[in-house]
């Protein structure tokens, strides 16, 4: 296997890491107004505690989870500069929206609890909700467009516009990502909490999970029927089985297994995308001769070799300490550990 | 104004804004780690209170530095795709390594620090902030290597077949001589800045507590001594770091003269070369257009520019006109559109370079004067309460923050018209497929969003400053911690 192929696979791994980890962060963010809303909360005080509980389930880890996409971006730049250049300049407006969404969402996590006051909190709640929904949707749209192909000319330049990217298949991809992350996030909440919230999260996972399964089968089936290979059908089947297994495990109250199930589903969905894509990295719908491939988009062998050494040494270390963080914070949380709000104003002088 | 100009403005706005927060993060992570370790070592309550108090302020600042940093990584591809294609083989590697080695470290261990109270063993917990600090320094190292390549490309070869610059020696990129002086310069400046935030916040609270105390006994038993100590620590770190900034900046000037002589000439708006033995002066202030025609220096220090550039007070310094003629010969006449610059004839915007260079130095000196004043007026147990402390509290953090901004404005504007010195002009780096409308949209969105976030951040920061340090609370031992006890630093 040449190094460019290795880096193509590694990018698949980085995207898997990102979508599996930040996928449940997005799910938790999207469920904030649901599990922390009127329907489930007893009163306003309970709603506030529930929201803080939900945020605290991902509190210690969301930031580290997000670095996976920064590493994927940096690795694309280093290993496939043309892919990075075409993709980021071509998908300009969706990426702008993703950036804005991530900015307000991340600040929401950090700033929301730092001041009492209903308006302050309600605004950051909006930031967290939209900041989770928008990237979940748009990453789905963007990645599906990469697999589907977009108009690219002989100079490797994207020649479409925003509406080129909003086609039925990629929109289905976006909605499927949202449904998958909602399921994945709900199961994560069930895994990380106890009491009523845990039970309610499982119910939500149950309902949304079915929708996600239908959507995922249609999406991956559609992609498979267009460009499928034997291997991509295999990963599609594994994805479907894992998701059904997750739903069954969730129903049986086996949250750990359910979580593994949705994680495998997301990983296999990414694998399906990358297998279908190979050996292209960004096919052109204008002319197959203009496809960006792992061959013509990649860096030199020397750069890939340097990057491979760095990646082989440090990726396991990152996995170790990130895994350790999950171990440190493995304890389930309940609303009772959420501290009461700090006094409103500084002590009078 | 065309799409290229807009992309440049957007890069300038987003980068300067991002770098308002970065040095504070680097500097404060060190000082919070010091406070936290001091608590673990001495068990004196004030250290724990300071660690938590400045830790919260640190987090408010860190969040904004983090989110604006994501924009930076995306922006190369979004707005500068031709640049990314041309140097991606070289420039992408430090960025990817930065994410893998530094970002993961910072974010993961910051999460451990925030949520680790009463959960991690104390020594381990204090060490997480040290690891965050190491992460910030590593991050600075890799991104500065990438930037140093743009100032002085090394470790590459131009491949005519692929039409791009390609990496031949990664180690050379990481040990670029520009990098080896830029890195300490930036890190010391960051320590100055982080320390200055501590000084500003601490002298404000010291004065407030001291004024509220009715008797000397009340003063001694209150919080004023704690803040006084923090202010003095900040002042000492700031002054030591200032020495590092000056020393590294001095070497930087000489290397800059060697590899980017135009930038040095632009720093002084020196049009005509000054030969060996004469000594080029450094003008502190000038009235006039700086276009080489009728500038009137008000204060001039003889020989200082020669000293900054060469280390000798009568060394030769080349002027803009001579270098311009040379570049027109080397690059302009080469017929290669990638390095041809007809618009500015290889001369950067002189008023910007001239004034930003002076503001960088002047604001840095002013910051050190405040640190000295704080150290002097708090000597031997004194607790000053003069009204000047209020001005000092505001000025202390702002001066180095803006000195940093002007330093970068000088460095980057002084490199123009190049995006990579001698290899590619900035106009050639922009994304061909991105429309004017798209850049206007993104620039407007970022400017408005960043403006609003600045207001939110400053308000929140001041809110926490006014609250002051929380009263001491004996932390729980993680070994016999009640699992249902409330989270300490929860979101």
From TrEMBL, chain A:
Principal subcellular localisation of the protein: membrane
InterPro entries: Cyt-d_oxidase_su2 (IPR003317)
Cellular location(s): Cell membrane
Pfam families assigned: Cyt_bd_oxida_II
Organism listed in the record: Humibacillus xanthopallidus
Cellular compartments per GO CC: cytochrome complex; plasma membrane
Family: Belongs to the cytochrome ubiquinol oxidase subunit 2 family.
GO biological process: aerobic electron transport chain
Name of this protein: Cytochrome bd-I ubiquinol oxidase subunit 2 apoprotein
From TrEMBL, chain B:
Gene Ontology BP annotations: aerobic electron transport chain
Alphabetical UniProt keywords: Cell membrane, Electron transport, Heme, Iron, Membrane, Metal-binding, Transmembrane, Transmembrane helix, Transport
Membrane topology: Multi-pass membrane protein
One Gene Ontology molecular-function label: heme binding
One cellular component term from this protein's GO annotations in UniProt: cytochrome complex
Top-rank lineage group of the source organism: Bacteria
Pfam families listed in its UniProt record: Cyt_bd_oxida_I
InterPro entries membership: Cyt-d_ubiquinol_oxidase_su_1 (IPR002585)
Main location: membrane
Transmembrane annotation, as ranges: 20-41, 53-71, 91-115, 127-144, 186-206, 230-249, 355-376, 388-410, 439-462
Annotated localization: Cell membrane
Membership in a protein family: Belongs to the cytochrome ubiquinol oxidase subunit 1 family.
Protein name: Cytochrome bd-I ubiquinol oxidase subunit 1 apoprotein
Protein's organism: Humibacillus xanthopallidus
């Amino acid at each position: 296997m040449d190094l460019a192929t290795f880096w193509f696979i590694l990018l698949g791994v980085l995207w898997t890491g990102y979508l599996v980890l930040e996928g449940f962060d997005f799910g938790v963010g999207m469920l904030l107004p649901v599990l922390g809303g009127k329907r489930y909360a007893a009163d306003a005080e309970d709603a506030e505690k529930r929201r803080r509980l939900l945020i605290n389930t991902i509190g210690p880890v969301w930031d580290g989870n997000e670095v996976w996409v920064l590493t994927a971006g940096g690795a694309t730049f280093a290993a496939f500069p043309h892919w990075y250049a075409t993709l980021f300049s071509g998908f300009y407006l969706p990426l702008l929206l993703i950036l804005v969404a991530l900015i307000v969402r991340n600040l929401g996590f950090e700033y929301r609890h730092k001041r009492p006051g209903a308006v302050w909190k309600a605004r950051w709640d909006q930031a967290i909700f939209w900041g989770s929904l928008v990237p979940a949707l748009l990453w789905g749209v963007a990645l599906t467009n990469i697999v589907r192909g977009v108009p690219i000319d002989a100079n490797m330049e994207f020649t479409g516009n925003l509406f080129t990217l909003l086609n039925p298949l990629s929109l289905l991809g976006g909605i499927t990502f949202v449904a998958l992350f909602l399921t994945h996030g709900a199961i994560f909440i069930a895994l990380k909490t106890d009491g009523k919230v845990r039970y309610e999260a499982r119910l939500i996972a149950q309902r949304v999970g079915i929708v996600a399964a239908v959507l995922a089968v249609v999406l991956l089936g559609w992609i498979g029927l267009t460009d499928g290979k034997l291997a991509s059908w295999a990963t599609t089947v594994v994805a479907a089985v894992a998701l059904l297994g997750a739903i069954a495990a969730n129903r049986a109250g086996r949250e750990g297994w359910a979580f593994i199930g949705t994680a495998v589903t997301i990983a296999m969905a990414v694998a399906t995308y990358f297998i279908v894509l190979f050996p292209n990295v960004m096919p052109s719908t204008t002319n197959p001769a203009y496809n960006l491939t792992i061959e013509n988009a990649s860096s030199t062998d020397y750069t890939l070799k340097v990057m491979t050494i760095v990646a082989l040494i440090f990726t396991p270390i990152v996995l170790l300490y990130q895994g350790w963080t999950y171990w440190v914070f493995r304890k389930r949380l309940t609303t009772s550990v959420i501290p009461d709000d700090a006094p409103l104003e500084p002590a009078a002088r | 104004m065309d799409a290229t100009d807009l992309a440049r403005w957007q890069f300038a706005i987003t980068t300067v804004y991002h770098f308002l927060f970065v040095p504070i993060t680097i500097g404060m992570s060190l000082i919070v780690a010091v406070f936290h370790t001091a608590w673990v070592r001495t068990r004196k309550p004030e250290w724990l209170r300071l660690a938590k108090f400045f830790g919260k302020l640190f987090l408010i600042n860190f969040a904004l530095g983090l989110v604006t940093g994501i924009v930076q990584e995306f922006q190369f591809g979004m707005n500068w795709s031709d640049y990314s294609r041309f140097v991606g083989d070289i420039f992408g590697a430090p960025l990817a390594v930065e994410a893998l080695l530094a970002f993961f470290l910072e974010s993961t261990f910051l999460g451990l620090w925030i949520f680790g109270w009463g959960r991690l063993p104390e020594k381990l917990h204090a060490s997480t902030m040290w690891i965050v600090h190491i992460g910030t320094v590593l991050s600075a190292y890799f991104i500065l290597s990438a930037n140093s390549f743009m100032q002085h490309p090394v470790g590459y070869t131009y491949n005519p077949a692929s039409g791009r610059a390609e990496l031949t020696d990664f180690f050379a990129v990481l040990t670029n001589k520009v990098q080896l002086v830029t890195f300490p310069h930036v890190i010391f400046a960051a320590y100055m800045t982080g320390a200055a935030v501590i000084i500003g916040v601490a002298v404000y609270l010291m004065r407030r507590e001291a004024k509220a105390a009715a008797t000397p006994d009340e003063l001694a038993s209150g919080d004023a001594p704690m803040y006084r100590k923090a202010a003095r620590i900040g002042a000492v770190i700031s002054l030591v770091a200032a020495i590092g900034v000056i020393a590294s900046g001095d070497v930087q000037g000489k290397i800059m003269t060697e590899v980017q002589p135009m930038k040095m000439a632009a720093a002084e708006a020196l049009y005509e070369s000054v030969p060996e033995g004469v000594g080029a002066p450094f003008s502190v202030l000038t009235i006039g257009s700086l276009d080489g025609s009728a500038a009137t220096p008000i204060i001039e220090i003889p020989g200082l520019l020669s000293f900054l550039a060469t280390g000798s007070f009568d060394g030769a310094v080349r002027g803009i006109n001579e270098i311009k003629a040379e570049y027109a010969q080397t690059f302009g006449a080469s017929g290669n559109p990638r390095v041809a610059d007809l618009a500015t004839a290889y001369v950067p915007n002189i008023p910007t370079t001239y004034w930003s260079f002076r503001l960088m130095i002047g604001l840095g000196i002013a910051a050190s004067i405040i640190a000295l004043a704080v150290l002097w007026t708090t000597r031997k147990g004194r607790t000053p309460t003069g009204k000047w402390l209020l001005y000092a509290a505001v000025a202390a953090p702002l001066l180095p923050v803006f000195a940093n901004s002007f330093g970068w404005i000088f460095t980057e504007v002084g490199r123009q018209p190049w995006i990579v010195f001698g290899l590619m002009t900035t106009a050639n780096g922009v994304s061909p497929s991105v429309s004017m409308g798209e850049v206007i949209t993104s620039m407007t969105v970022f400017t408005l969003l960043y403006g609003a976030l600045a207001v939110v951040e400053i308000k929140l920061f001041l809110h926490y400053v006014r609250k002051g340090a929380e009263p001491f609370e004996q932390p729980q031992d993680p070994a016999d911690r009640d699992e249902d006890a409330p989270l300490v630093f929860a979101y």
